[in-house]
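2024-03-11 09:14:02 DEBUG pipeline.ingest accepted 1 chain
2024-03-11 09:14:02 DEBUG pipeline.ingest length=141
2024-03-11 09:14:03 DEBUG pipeline.predict start
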Amino acid sequence: MTRTQVSAIAFAFTALFAGQAMAASEAPVTRDQVKAELAEAVRTGNMIAGESGQQLNEIFPHNYPAQQSGSTVTRAQVKAELAEAVRAGNVVAGESSTALNQAFPQNYVAQNQAADKSREQVRAELAEAAASGQMSRRIEA
């Protein structure tokens, strides 16, 4: 035998034994377990349909129960997060893929702005400015 043939045979044996080692499971599956898995796959539509490669529940979703997503967030939490995002302008505007607060910054308060003064302090400053004549008492809109 030539060196190439020996290498090819060694490679074939390696592939054969490696495939068997990866296919081996720790515990053998019983016939009842296989039947139960098949029944579950048929019930949920997790079976390949023909040559398309799609599963039955993807082709005919109305014939199978909806898949449980297992979300950990409640509906109220999602609604609160959405309301906060809309208020802050953190939602995408149209096809431009820019947030509303970036497209129209004049409509939204800057996010990193923190109030340095309380409402009462601002009112006191306004009253003082109006009393000292720094601004007119009549404010036009």
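2024-03-11 09:14:41 DEBUG pipeline.report The beta strands are 92-93, 98-99.
2024-03-11 09:14:41 DEBUG pipeline.predict end
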